[in-house]
Amino acid sequence: MSKKGVRIVAAFLVIMMMAGCGDERILERLGFIESQSFDLLPNGKLRITCSIPIADPQSEQNRKVIAIDAESSKDAKLEFNKKTSLTLVSGQLRNLLISKSVAEQGLWDKFDTFGRDPAISPQVNISIVNGNAGHLLEKDYKQHPPTDKYVNRLLGKEARAHTIPKMTLYEFSRDLLDDGIDSIAPIIKEEEDNITLDGIGLFMESKYVTKIDTEEAIILGFLRGNLQRSAIDVELKKGQQVMFNSLTSKRKVKVEHADTERAKVAIHVHLKGSILEYTGPLKLDNPSNRREIAKTVSEHLTERANKMVKFMQKHQVDSLGIGQYVRNSLSHNEWQSMNWRDVYSKADIKCYVHIKIRNIGKSS
Amino acid sequence: MIKGILSGNVALFHESDTYIVDVYGPAARAIEQSQTETVITGPHDAFTEQANSNLSLIRERLKSSHLKVIKLEVGEVAKSNAYILYIKDIANMDYVNELASRIKAMEIDTVYDTNMLIQCIDDNPSSIFPQFISTERPDTAVSKLSDGKVLCFLDGSPSIVSVPASFFEFFTSSDDYYQRWAIGSATRLLRLVAFIITITFTAVYVSITTFHYEMIPEHLLLSLTESRNRVPFPPLYEALLMETTIELLREAGARLPTKIGQTIGIVGGIVIGQSAVQAGFTSNILVIAVASSAIASFVVPNYVMSASIRLVRFGLIILAGLLGNFGLAAGIAAVVIHLSGLTSLGSSYLSPVAPFHSSDWKDVFIRAPFSLFTRRPSQSKSPNKIRNKMRK
Lengths: 364, 392
Fold this sequence. Notes:
The complex is a heterodimer. Helices cover about 35% and strands about 30% of the residues of chain A. Chain A is built from twelve helices and 14 strands. Chain A has helices at about 5-20, 75-80, 100-105, 110-115, 135-140, 145-160, 170-175, 215-225, 285-315, 320-330, 330-335, 340-345, and strands at about 30, 35-40, 45-55, 65-70, 85-90, 95-100, 125-130, 185-190, 195-205, 205-210, 230-235, 240-260, 265-280, 350-360. Chain A starts with a helix and ends in a 5-residue tail after the last strand. Chain B has helices spanning about 1-5, 50-60, 95-105, 115-120, 140-145, 175-180, 180-210, 220-230, 235-255, 260-280, 285-300, 305-340, and strands at about 10-15, 15-20, 65-75, 80-85, 135, 150-155, 160-165, 345, 345-350. The chains are: A alpha/beta, B alpha+beta.
């Protein structure tokens, strides 16, 4: 055999022998951590719970839940591994459930590994749990899919409808590390038989500060960005409801004045939607009545939007990202020298919401 | 004179003259349908083992005085006749001369078939891939001639080879031209998809189940793990086992008469499709992967190319099982590098992708309307680049 032939055979043999010692992760020998929850213990340690689906059709349970007290997430993974026959891996992680108490202490330091570990997808959903996160994850909700999938689909579906923001590891860390915007995250809580949305948490840096209610979430939605295929329900007076769907929105932020001390900002939101329900006295087929309703709804929404901005200013959280627009209108030096949080809390921010009725549905 | 007698002629001696009379009429197969290259619409006749009848099949379709035939002798012992066909002023004479000189330079006792002949004269004898395309269909042969290609065939073989060939030519069928152009284009794209499926599907399964669990979608994860749970082998061995079984079935089916072939199909379908999964021998998703890549491999119209691709697939499966997606990517890269290095009669095998000739693409990746076929393929380096013209 020629010298080249010998080399090829040798290389082939080496490859064949290497087969046994690669970092193989054969599917059925793995335990996929699908959800992980974090609670704060009185002694300052974390209680970490993880849920692993079981792929055995004969098994009665469809998942396995393990809880452990540990210093950090990776520390916990080593401990988890001691308790199972499977190699635990986090590449299929879908949900991070963080209890409010942990979130109040700040997420970034403790969760360093989620930004660092290449196995963890940036598409992992982050949600804050009002109450005990471990308990929420441990519990089986009889009328619903397995808890991991339940949470995952709940958040995904609601984010598509814009009732909550889509908040994955990617979006959270982007808002966190960017100048002039603060992160937000959906809050969920456990009920008797269900898991339900409990508002949207506002963060200052990586620390949870306060929340806004679920009813106001859509307002936050259109103040924060452009929406598509959304819906909104407005109560004009007692017993007078208007519901819009196929709602699209466009946000325009105008910085009217900005220096290192003061800022004046106007947020214009243009909504367009179809009326799906209206329980009021006016006849909708009359164009002037329609204009009337649009005007009332616009005023109503403007008021709610202004209230929300005031609330955020009070807590000094710039969850709408107004700082980004102010930053763009200033020079880099000016922006660096200004204390945006102070300026923000005193800034003159006005919201203007305009709604346009696209159509009034099939019957009139 | 002796040569004449050896060729089956009768020698007639009259006084001092000798006449050689051609009364040779050997037993021959009738012109039938091609078994290997069937089409749905279009002509159904195919070449036979008789060189004269093959020539007449081509002449019938190409009544041009420019069609030229060179007759050569091949094989030191057998002295078979090889014919080179080309259209003068359309074919590039460099190719014709190169082909003729290669055939003359062959040193071999006997050649039995054109497919054997081309292996003796191709540019890279040790490559897996065929570098000349052979066909049994006269209509394909004629279309190659008018593309400016050179044909070559051997007396006693029903295949005609067209040179130079490009890799993508192996994925075309004359049926593409007989369908409406949109359907023809869709079929061509489908074949390229089939090519990708057949070389990668099983390999991707192996690589994902062995290394890259992160890539599995949420909904597939559990069913995949469930079906893998009962299998005692690692995915690599599981896949090789199934692929070998399919190859066994195919080979058995190819060598048996049609009636027994059906039995093989049923036995294979039931034993492998169902029992293997039920017995926990393989996972059902692997069966899907193996079956679809086997089916996809038969979509490739050229049998020689289809066999080459299937062999390449085994290499990729092994690489995927050992090194995961990295191995798979490296393997595909190696195949692409190899393909780019190949030549067919000195011209690039990957033409018209490399060298890049986008104007040829409308007859490679899709089958555009005929009105757009205004130029002959760049690979044939024809002196008459524009079609429908015979310029001096």
